[in-house]
Amino acid sequence: MVPLSWYLIFAAALFSIGLFGVLSRRNAVAILLGIELMLNSVNINLAAFWRYGDVLQMTGQVFAIIVFAVAAAEVSVGLALVISVYRRRNTVVADDINMMKW
Amino acid sequence: MTTQTLMWLIPLPPILAFALIVLFTNRSKGLSHTVGVGAAFLSFLGSMIVFVRALGVEHLGEHPFESSVPWLPLGESVDTYFRIGVLVDPTTAAVLFFVAITIFMIFLYSVGYQNFGQPKGDHDHKGLPPHGGTVEEHGHKHVVPSVEPMYSRFFAFLGLFAFGMYVLVLSDNLLTFFVGWEIMGLCSYLLIGFWYAKPSARDAAVKAFMTTRIGDVFMLLGIAYLYYATGTLTFRGIFTEEVLHTLASVPSEFLGFSAAGLIGLLLFIGTVGKSAQFPLHVWLPDAMEGPTPVSAMIHAATMVSAGVYAVVRMFPLISLDPQTMTVVAFIGAFTAIFAATIAVAQNDIKRVLAYSTISQLGFMIAALGTGAYVAAVFHLITHAFFKALLFLGSGSVIHGMEHGVLHTGNHNVDPQDMFNMGGLRNKMPITFWTFLIGGFALSGFPLVTAGFWSKDEILAEAFGHGHWAVFLTLAVAAFLTAFYTMRQITLTFLGEPRTEEAEHAQETPWTMTAPLVILAFFAVTYGWVGIPEHFPVLGGLVTNWLHEFVGGTLAEHPEAVEFSIIPLLTSFVVALGGLYAGWVVYRNVNSPAEDRFQVPLLKNKYYFDEFYDRAFVKPAYWFAENVVYRFLDQGVIDGVLHIFGPVTDRIGTIIRNYFDLPIINRFFGDGSAEVTQRAGSRLRVVQTGRIQQYLMLALVAFIAIGAALYFFLLA
Predict the structure, then answer these.
(1) Nearest to B603, CA basis, from B613, B588, B614, B593
(2) Which domains does chain A have, with CATH numbers?
(3) Is B691 on the interface with A (CB under 8 A)?
(4) Which of A11, B57, B467, B531 has fewest C-beta within 10 Å?
(5) Where are the domains of chain B?
(6) pLDDT tens across A23-45, in order?
(7) Is B699 in CB contact (< 8 Å) with chain A?
(8) pTM
């Protein structure tokens, strides 16, 4: 069996990639993608801890499903905002969307 | 390699090809089709090996090849798992045989159909069919067909589609069966809408997806009910005598159906959607918007066959309830004649075939409804061969006509309209002869073609079991089938060319004609494996292998029906009569105006599209506009908000006048405001408004605090 730490390292790596994406990308869609990666790395952790902990307790899986639902809701709202912004301002670069700034 | 391992491996090459093409090779057209066709060939090879090994096993029905792995823990205890796996019983083997051949042929054909090796188009866009490119040869320019701009993507989609079909065919349980089913649903959407810049293709894709979705939802309900009632979804688990008996005896709460009847009905609605049976048939003719290999894929080898295959698979369950069987038989027979009448009045070469497909699927469904299991499987297989042949043949015709259109440069001529053709037999001989074989097989030309044997068996079974209404309906439908097939052949290939474009039509490359020839071979010979034992003269010359083999799938081996001369004569009369009538009526018809069968009612498909538009689409728009938007959103929600507004405003005014102005302004007033403003103007530099900078700061702070904690507390 694959040791637990491998999953955790993999999840941490995925999280870092996502974080890097969120911090470094200028494209709002790409930032959303980064956020999705970070959320899903958490899911891997949840599933891994569930599998290596008490298997009959379904909490890990349930949490993972909740995270999925939240992620889906978040990304649909986010993408809707991006589309709406794109229609109005013809850009999805986060830095260019600065109308509310002083 | 053991057969079981091989069965697991069969679906893999196409999905790998899909991934490879999408991720790596999509820039290179040649590499992409090599990967795609190669994968299809590997699956084809694996399927053939499994098929041959299945032939060598006695009593395969009782001891099928199967293998499964634990998949989902069910949470009841550590050891109970939902298992998924692969299963090859005689029916699966027979289906696998034709699926593998047709899929491989379609891959090969696509190479030629999408104009590989031709120059790039002069003004081709992604999402539109290629318009042709100019080449210079011997000093003068002429226009030739140009290569499809999204060539690689097409093969990726085909690969995914093939994967879905193999998963569906090989599944040993309804869940993965449904997964394959849905993968194909997605792929049909993608492939029908392949030329997505064409509004008609886009609409057709959405229509196909939405219509099949209706069926799929019911099917999923059926699967859920089945799982709730039995606790298992594996076919072998459901089809035990005990489980079937329980299902048949437990009543459901619905219209006096037994649980088995209701589940069967729900699953059958899925089939109605997928196999385009009445009343969910409307999507299939519109699916002709896709490239022609897609039509063949959807119509013959995969999607619509999958619908019938689902009923075939679930036959032991569906056949438990006579009420459900009546519904199945009725829908099938009605669809058979209903679609056949529409096909008579269509002018688009592919649309005729589309309605013919709906009609032929109706034959199979009706056969299943009358209990003729083997006959249905037989017709499913022969139909797959000759209909794939006809679709690929029609694609070849269209391709040849497009050549003519490019030659004359007159783009107003529709290369799919049969009234623009005529006389193509001399221009495209291979296409003509193979199309003729396919057409005769579809019509059931006696004794020679495969279509005759399978259709005759369906009629004989319906007659033998006393289903008079079904027998008569199917006989009339068979007559119409022969009639419109001959109409199509006459208009397309016989007579003289009616347009200059047809004069300049040209035979297509070998990648397109080779699949035609191979499929034509099977369209003739496959009938010989299922000749009834009691047939005069011919019966018994070749053993009725199909009946023995496929019939072995069922727990009770089905009895071969008594031979009777009436259905046989009927088959002869309707096939030959229909063909002759089609030739006599259409040999001198040169324009739609001379065609007496262009009745508006038939031409407009009994106004079903218009009816659905009025009955479902328009009301949905009306509901969204008036109820959801105007009433709920603007009326109720905004209305409530509009009550809050004035009330809050009043409260706000009171607070402002008696609290805010005197106390806040007087006591804390401008002094503190100025202080805050000054502080604010200094601090606002920090507030860049860029979330990414904030996050970066948060990350730095987090690392710093973490490092400090680690350093001071742990070290």
Answers:
(1) B593
(2) 4-94 (1.10.287.3510)
(3) yes
(4) B57
(5) 3-118+150-603, 691-715
(6) 888 888 999 999 999 999 999 99
(7) yes
(8) 0.76
